[in-house]
Putative pterin-4-alpha-carbinolamine dehydratase (Kineococcus glutinatus), 233 residues
Amino acid sequence: MGPAPLSRPEIDAALGSLPDWRLRAYALHAVYAFDTSATAIAFLADVGAAAEAADHHPDVDWRYRHVFCASTTHCAGNRVTARDTALAARIGELAAARGGRPEPALVRGVEIAVDCTDPAALEPVWAAALGYRRGEGGDLVDPWRRGPSVWFQRTATPAASRLHVDAHVAAGEAEAVLQRVRAAGAALTDERFAPAWWVLGDGDGNRLCLCTPAPRPDDGGRAPAGGGPAPGA
């Protein structure tokens, strides 16, 4: 029997003592910047050693002087558990010891949304083409979380533009991102569901949804978007 997933209030309480970390979709995320690439690599080794010691392995992505970290518990359905909050605290300590600076504004993700009347008729095509599988939230996800997830929005009246992008940001960053997107020329077309999401359009009317992990109104039973992370502990 694996560890129990934490409730949203429990996750929020835990984040109060994890200032570097943010909730996005189903995972805890943090991004650290280091003074040199060599220091970032050394931090990666630190995280690897800590993961082995805890027998709990996060996703890590090294980009020059930045390291992106995400953690969920695979045996708990790719949800956040106490194992993730404990590992997040340890990673924060390791980053600080190497002089790492958290950059929460970089905690972002992208999802492709497809308006359709029958998701079951479309999902197999996308899954076969992309090599994806169904995630815990019902989305199609990259098993190694390298590409954006895909979800099929059931509607009786699909929009003329059937595809749109959902940009997922941490709740505390949403207002700043929203202002930058609008300043860049986007029109805010629907804010009824804010702060869970805002619907915007570019100059040609292409839709973009800015999404956060805020509690969501009922939207047909769909869980918060983003799918599950790559296989692992």
Remarks:
- The chain has five helices and 13 strands.
- Residues 37-54 form the longest helix (18 residues).
